[in-house]
Structures are given as C-alpha cells and as structure tokens.
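G., before I forget:
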Amino acid sequence: MLYIIFYFQVHQPFRINKYKVFDIKNSVAYFDEDLNRHIFNKVSERCYLLTNKLFKELIEISDGRFKISFSITGTFIEQAKKYRPDIYKSFLDLVQTGGVELLNETYYHSLSSIFDLDEFLEQVAKHAEIIKKEFGFTPHVFRNTELIYFDKLSDVLLNLPHIKTILIEGADKILKGESPLYPRISYNHVHLLLLKHYKLSDDIAFRFSDRSWEKYPLTAEKYVSWIKNLTLTEKEGKNLYLNLFVDYETFGEHQWKESGIFEFIKKVIELLLNEKNISFLLPSEVISTLNYKPKTVSVPEPTSWADTERDLSAWLSNSLQWNAMKTCYELLKLAKEKEKKDLIPILKTLTTSDLFYYMCIKYFQDGDVHKYFSPYSSPEEIYRYYMNILSDIEENLEE
Amino acid sequence: MRVLMLTWEYPPFITGGLGVACYGLFKALAEKGIKIYMILPTREKGFFQIFSPLEADYPTAKKLNKKQIESIPLSFYEFHYLEPKGAYSPAFLTSITKKWELPKLKTKILYRVPNEVLKRISHLLSQNNSLISKVSTYTENVIELSKYLKFDLIHAHDWLTYPAGLFLKKLYKAPLVTHIHATEFDRALSFGHPVIHEIEYLGLNFSDRVIAVSRYTSNLIKEHYKVAEEKIRVVYNAFLPPLKPPQKLKKFKEPVILFLGRLTIQKGPEIFLEFAKKLIRGYGKKVRFLIAGAGEMERYLMLEAASLGIGTKIMFTGFLTRAEVETALSMSDIVVMPSVSEPFGIVALEAMSYGCALIVSKQSGVSEVIKFAYKVDFWDINKMVNIVINLLNNPQKLEEIQEKAKAEVQKFRWSQKSEEIINVYKELISH
C-alpha cells in the first residue's frame, strides 16, 4: 500500500513597523497593523477561502477517504480572529468534517528550539492549548518551525508525552541515498519520524508554474504517474508513506489561480482516490498501519526545509540575524525574571522566525525567494527597525 | 552684483555638506544684496533665482522664458561617488601638471582660458561613464541657460561644475571663482578617478580665484595641483542655527555617543566602530553608540557591529532627514568625527551648537578654527577612548566642555563668511 500524507503549513507572522530610533520612548506601535491586515486579506482572498472550500468538498465527496493535516500557528489564529473571522470559521468547518488532523508546533513559529529550550516548551504547550481551545483537538504529532529537526529535539519532546510522531525534512544528508517513503525512528527510539518527499512536494510548491522547468507543464496525470511509479521499487510488500508537505499558501498565493493550481490539485486527488493501492492517511495514523519495524536514524545537526542548504542558514547565517535573535531571547529571559507581564507576549511575538528570514543576506537579490517574501527593502532595514524595538523594550525593562 | 552659482546640491537635494554650505552661504549673500542665479543638475531645463533671503529658503525655479516651473518638486540627478578604476600613481598627476603651462598671476587682469583647455575638457566629458555623462549634460544645460541670464561673475562649487564654469568664463570673459569643498583626494583617500583629478586641476588653475574651505584643503591643492598660493583664499564654513533653539533630549539612561555622516571610508565609520569596541571593553559601564547616516559601507559596518553580539549597544539609523539629524544631535552627549580626510566638516559645528562634546580628527579642516573640542589624529583610537572615558567618569568636565562648545560655535556665522566671499568678488570686479 502507498499512503499519502498531506500536511500544509498555515502561518502568518506579525510583521514589524518601520520603527525608527526616534520612535524609541515615543511609540509602542511595534507591529505594522495595516500591513498585517492587508496581507492577511490578500492571502485570504487568493488562497484560504478557495482552498478551504475545495478541500472541504473533496473530503465530503470522498466520504472521508481524502484526508489532510494542518499546522496552524498561534499568530495565524490571532490574526484570523482579528482580521477575518470568516477565515477562522472556514478552518473550523474544515476541521469538523473529521478529515483533518491538526499538528502541534511552536505558537510563534519560532526558532526557540535552537535558542531557549524552556521557552520552546512553553511555546509548544501554548500552541497545544490554543488548538485545544479553538478547535477542540488534542494534537499527537509535532512539526517544528520549518521542519527543523535534530536528535536533541526528540529528547526535549520527552517532556510532552502526548507527542508520538514528528514530521521532518527528507533531507539528503539524513537519507544518505535511501528512500523517504519509509518512516524512521528517532535515535533515542521514542518518536516516529515522517520524512518529507522533497522532490514531489517541491514540484507542487516551487516548480508548478516554472516555465523553464523541463517537466513544465505539470499535468495531474503526469504527477499521479510519478506517484504510482514510487511503488515499483518495493518488492517485500512494505507499506510506503509519501509525505507531501507544503506551505498552504502554495495554493493561490505562491502559485497563482491563473496557473491552474486549483484544477491541478483537485484532479490529482480525484485520480488518486480511484487508485486501489493508494490511500490518504493522517500523520497520527501511520503508527498503526506500519507492517515493519522502521530503521532508526540519527540527525546530529539541525536540518530544515529551507533553501537549498536545508539547514538553519535561512535564519542564522549572518551576524545581524544572530545578534537580533540572541538579544531577543536575552530580553525575554529578563522579562520573565522581572515578571513584566506586558512585555513577555511582545517579545515572544518577536521570536517569530520570519523576522529573521527577512534579515537573510545570502539570497537577498532581485527575484530571490527571501526578497519575494520580505516586505522590507533590505535586510539592513528590518534589522534597524527590529533592534530599535528591542532597545525600547530594553529601556522599559530596566524601569 | 549678480552672481551665477553653479552647484550640484542644494536643500532639500543633498547628500553631504556641499548643499548645506551652499544654502548657508547663498542666504547670507542674498542678505547682503547679492543677486544669485543658481543652476542645479535638474532634469528640467531651468534655473533658480535667489534675490532675497526668503528665496534662499524657497528658490523659485524658472524656465528659459523666465516663467516659473510648475512641476515641483523637481527631479535631480543623484550624485554617487565614482569608484576609482585601475591603479593610479602620483606620476599621473605629474604628467598633467607638466602638460599645461600655467598662466602667471596678474592682479586685476583675468586669466585666459586657452582653447586647448576647453578641448581637453570636452574630451574628458565624452567618456562613457554615467556620472561624467551627467556632468556633460549639466555643462550643456548651463551653457544654454546662461544666454538668458545676466551676471557679473561665475562661482562654481566643486569639480562637477568646473567644466561649465570654464566654458562660461571663455564665452563671456567673466571672472570665475572656483570653490573647493572637497577634493578627489578626500573622497578616494588617495588617488581617485583620473578624469576628476584632471578636471579639478584645470578648474582650479584656470579660474581667477580659488576659495578653499580650510588651510588643510588649501595645502592639499597647492601640493598636488600646484595652484598658485596668491589666488587661493581660505574661507571657512559656518553653520546655520537651527530654527528652534537646540534642546537636549534624554532617550536613554546611558550616555549616547554619536557618529554622524555618510558611511563612506572618508568619514571613518570603521574607526568609530573600532573606537566603540575599545570603549566598551575599557569603560565597563553601559554606553550607547549611534551610527547615523547612509552609505555604501552600511552592510559591512552592521555585520561587523552585530558580530560583537552586544545587542542594542550599537544602533544604526539609516538615512536621516534634516529634522532627524537635529534630533540625533539632541539625543547625543558626545560626537566623534574620525574623518580620515575632511576638507571642513560642518557637522562638527552643528554638534557643538547642540551642546555635544566633540572629538574631531586633526585631518579635518574644522579643527583649525575651533578651540573647545578634542583634536586627535584619525588613527589614534586609544587616545579617543581615553578622552571619552575621562569625560564619562567626570560628568562635570563633560558638561563644562559641552557648554563651552555651545558658546564658542555662535561666532561661526555665515553673515561674516559672506563678507569674506564678497571681498573676493570685489577683487575681480572693479565696480
């Protein structure tokens, strides 16, 4: 059997204001309310509304045989409730079909697992709490920000016994030539690891409308034939697990509606539903369907799904990112010590990884993905605003 | 007296001290009754008229037919520092100085601009380079516009306008004053772009008088460009008192030390960063450093500063508006100006007027005229650190020097400088 596990990342960061040195002590408007609302509205119209509707129909038409999973960040839920209650409601409706599993991650989509493990556990617990409160769902599967994973993370997650399974990047350096279709066991034998099939995932997420790609145009038939070919290599009857992990905004935002992405994904799912030896699965269902004992795998260095390096360099490859992040966690620690209840949530919101992604220099050129996603004109610009905000908070902390 | 001013910068279109100096000077000259036409590198073909101090604040842009240009704001060609290309040596300069036989100084009688000089200038401007081609366009515009204007004297500011100045001088047999606010040696910190050097050389040597903004600059042009001492007049810059009386603004609990200037190698921001590092190590208590300004070194400086991992202690402001410059000064306790080569440095006077203690490099023209500031060689970082630590540990001493600086700077007024300039004009115009 070939199982297909769809997981979609649903996230929006709180982008910061163009906060100047001169705003210090004059303003606490750290976040760009207008920009955040504008982007949320734009993505709602282009992606969330249409995609939620499509997936809800597919789940209902297939009698629940089509299944998907979401990781919805805390900052997304806050923005949805604030800016677009209709979007919040449509996710709620989708979850109520029963064909959706919700994953657990850091509330703020942060890199706290790298910088501050206590904070990391707090953010994961806070996220589990909001998922429970808003959707009535208790998650059993964890995915870290941008699929960051390393051995020690599995040890840390022992603190959260409800977590049984972790989604990770099927990076070449983890697989070492082997297939991502077989789940693995963490080095400490505690967690089941599901590995992203980055080729087939990125065919949808990045290459779908790329006219210079030799496989362009990608039709549903072509894509499904690639999926079917995956089963050819397995001769012992072991179940295979195809993990297709993409940003939810792929549908309609990164790949525009005009590219035919909606028709494509609908057709792919319809074709797959007709296949006898292929079915959809939720991440938490993998454990009970395994007909073999997975191999263990050790991942000493952090891996992620970002950039071609698939490491932490998207957020931590230059000193701006490093100093900004380090200072934020230091101030957060101080705020906790001093019990500054008003400043703690602000600092936590400032741990959101996107803010450091915008400070990345290595790919910040015209047309590059970092620049495409950044609302700031340069890494230097956001660094200035970010550090000014931290300075203002620092001044308030010392009072 | 009608003066045709040729300049590349004027507020609000400024990238450095040139525009600020022109504004202060033109306004003071207008107060003394000098009538000014000004031509800037605007995309629209037009000139500006400054016949009164008020017009210095809001110069009226006019077309060839003297009708006012409606489309305001006008768009300007930006000035970018021209990277020196290739390796240049002092031998290059020797070759130009040998090529041109310089006219002997004759008082009262004006210099002649030989046709070969203008031919050479045309050749230099025909280079395929975006900035130089802008200078060429500007020169053509000035020649065309000048036909519609009546003036007694041409006053050209910095190399970008020297070609236009030389052509007009030849065309109208009018006296030409070339004002040198910065040389290519200051910008490049050694030999810079050969075309710019040659234009500076010709502009300074074939004009009737040269105004240098400091002894420092005067010595530089005498040494490198062989400009005759007799025709150089040193007129220091002054500063403009801000509209509102300067007030101190306490934003941070700890003392604030400011670097203010373009982030280019000439202004020494890297030296400032090194100074900051050493001060943090040597002082022990909290200090905040503000690096204010924009420039091509920003990313490099930011990465360096961030790599120290000292959080928010070193802050960057990015590009500042005039009002923001004033706020930055009012936030600061000490200003450090470690310029490697600074013809004058108006920022120093502004810093003093805001009651900031000032540490300025000896390689800055301004250090020749101010008394209540610490003057240090730009490379002597240890000395800068010792001075600042001493000031921070003695608040009374710090306050004393701040007060003295504030009082001293009041004497550097444009009204006095404009008289010195008018005297230079009078040397050239009999009536």
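Residues 314-397 of chain A form one domain. The mean pLDDT of chain A is 94.

More on Monday.
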